[in-house]
Amino acid sequence: MIEAVTGLLTRRNEPADARSEPPEQPDHAAPVSGVALGRLLAAAILSPAQASLLVADALDQLEPARSEGQDRIRLRNVTVSDSGHLTIEYARGAVSGHDVTEEVTGLFRSIATNCRGSALPGRLHESLLETTDLDVLLQRVRLAVEPDVDAAEESRKRCQLARLVAATRGRPRPDDRTVEERTAGEKPPPVDTGSTLASPGWFPPARNPWHRRKRRPSRRQGALGLVAILILFAAVWMAPRAWSDLRRGWDAVLNPVNPEEQNQIRPVSPPPEPPAEQPTPATTDAGRVPPPVDVGAPGSAGPITLVTATRANGECGPGQACEIRIDVHLDPAATVDAVTWRVNVYDRCSGEVRAGGDVSERVQPGSQQVYGIVRTDLPPGAALAVAAITSAPATAASEPLLMPAENARC
User: Fold this and answer.
1) 63 or 173: whose pLDDT is higher?
2) 75, 147, 337, 360: least surrounded by Cβ within 10 Å?
């Protein structure tokens, strides 16, 4: 954008007579000592005061040119001199007033875009919107930069711009004092060569040598390390128990227990009935083989299609408490409200039968199976059997669950 805004006319320090008619300069005219505005804006970011000075310089040169007929002025080059002044060089040519307004607008917009961190860029951009008249444009820009123009700080800001120009060109920075402030015959002090955009009081950051030392761990770090070791030790020690709890929870998910069964009262066994006469089985040297168990009920009856009795929690034997799971399968075509069963314990050697209490379980609508878990105490004995017998809605029995299942002897 800045390359398009070209033209050079030094108007601010010229006498009034010389401004009456800007002379046409040939292409081989000697360039003004300084740096192009586009190069300066690409290398540095201006402060609001510096940007307002450059805009004011441009206005001081464009406003007289406007009164003398800018319709044939073609902007050629924009330069910031070594003293920190903006200079516009222009040449006359066949160009319309609209094109001149666009070039001047681009010049001010480039300065506003470079200046950041204040309200000046916003005011400049607003002053450049929706205007095609150069007089109106220059007047609005003048009002936009007036709050940031300080005559008392102009000399210092010019020195700052001069240092930026020198740094952009890669030359030593000029003295901070103006020419008027130096005494006659005094030479500027020598400065280091090289390009820099830093202020005079800026120094490169130095790393604290303390950061390069290898410090011992603090008490807090030691405490955190000890806590981490204790947590690791506890995790290793609790891993087997956690694994056991995890397996138990997994079994509970796969084999859920009805919450109503947790409040059931343990059935009380009635007095044993007199043993029936049983044929004496064949005996061996290790004892006689116990006779088969007669549960006294069929495997299915009425809407009951099957009754099963299985161990609910691992192995159990005589003289121990045993949890038995009872499953009653129902005919899907039948309508059953509740199922009642009991668990009988048979002593296969003596023929004694210990009957448990009745347990009732409601049948959910559409369900084809009812199950429950009953805890019963097994009496001492060499050969026992457990069977579930239903009493409602029909009488059916499960296959006897033998304990032990094989090689039982009386």
Assistant:
1) 63
2) 337
Q: Considering only CA atoms, which of 88, 83, 102, 82 is closest in space to residue 34?
A: 82
State CA 144 to chain mean position distance: 44
Q: Measured between alpha carbons, how far is 254 from 6 in angstroms, rounded to an integer?
A: 85
Using the structure block, give the residue that is written with the tokens 């859920």.
256
In 3D, which of 99, 96, 126, 110 has the Cα closest to residue 51?
A: 110
Q: Which residues are paired to 310 by β-bridges?
A: 325
Determine if the peptide bond prior to 393 is cis (ω within 30°): yes
pLDDT of residue 30: 46
Any idea how long the chain is?
410
Type of residue at 377: D
**Which residue(s) pair with 90 in the sheet?**
75
- Cα separation, 403 vs 315, in Å, equals 9
Selection from 394, 287, 401, 293 nearest residue 343 by Cα: 401
Cβ burial 51-73 (10 Å sphere, 16+ → b, else e): bbbbbbbbbbbbbbbbeeebeeb
66 CA to centre of own chain: 59
pLDDT in tens, 29-51: 445 578 898 888 888 888 888 88
* Helix axis angle, 134-145 to 97-114, nearest 10°: 20
Rounded Cα distance, 271 and 206, in Å: 98
- The answer to whether the beta carbons of residues 58 and 108 sit under 8 Å apart is yes
Contact between 336 and 330 (Cβ < 8 Å): yes
d(CA 309, CA 389): 10
Computed on alpha carbons and rounded to an integer, the radius of gyration of the chain in Å comes to 53
This prediction has a pTM of 0.37
Amino acid present at 142: R
The distance in angstroms from the start CA to the end CA of the chain is: 112
Instruction: Tell me the torsion sign for CA atoms 256, 257, 259, 262.
Output: negative
Residue 339 backbone phi and psi in degrees, to 5: -125, 135
Note the pLDDT tens digit of each residue in 332-358: 888 889 999 999 999 988 889 999 889
CATH architecture of 302-401: Sandwich (2.60)
